[in-house]
Amino acid sequence: MSRKSAMLSLLLSQALFLCGLPLFLQLLLYLNPLVIMVVWFCILLFVSFAVLYFRGETVMIPRLLWQAALICYSLSLLVLLFFRPKGQVYSYNLIPFSTILSYLSNEMNGLVSFYNLSANVGLFIPFGLYLLSRDGKEPSALRKFLYPFITISDIEICQLVFRRGSLDVDDLILNMMGVYLGYVLYPLFTSVVVFRSGKSKRVQRQ
């Protein structure tokens, strides 16, 4: 990544984050304070990717760094899922699409509805990208489904057992949509990001 692209990405992402900060702070009523950092990080990544793509640049990332970043990202999501503000009532839903329809019908706060729908999809896109980025042969269609399905189901069951967050079959549906969206976006992702075994450097896309 060139210095100009890095500076442009930083300035644009911070401006976008600061403009939306009054709205993002409202999420603290429902979620762990870590959500602000997750939102900031996601905006930075999205803007950086857009800048690189439209400037015709690629960036080489050490595969080990990509794996470490995903581990840290996963831990952050687990904190959001299992550690909520005190006073929230535990709930569960086993009826498909009932929660989704509730969000879409504006029965709840508009910001919360938008965040829950978009976050449950968008925050799981990296896992779809990661599954296809691993070394070796591309996983079969069955494994593409089973790996995320089993993992997400285990998380939902843990929320039920430990009464943390809420077990919701609609979360599973939305999360799986996010993983599959990652599969769809993978060719676009690799047009900007190239993995290697050494340190990252800038490469000009032809």
UniProtKB/TrEMBL annotation:
VanZ-like domain location is 71-189
Top-rank taxon of the source lineage equals Bacteria
TM region(s), chain numbering: 34-52, 64-83, 114-133, 145-162, 174-195
Alphabetical UniProt keywords: Membrane, Transmembrane, Transmembrane helix
Cross-referenced InterPro entries: Teicoplanin_resist-assoc (IPR053150), VanZ-like (IPR006976)
Q: Under which name does UniProt file this protein?
A: VanZ family protein
Organism expressing this protein natively: Peribacillus simplex
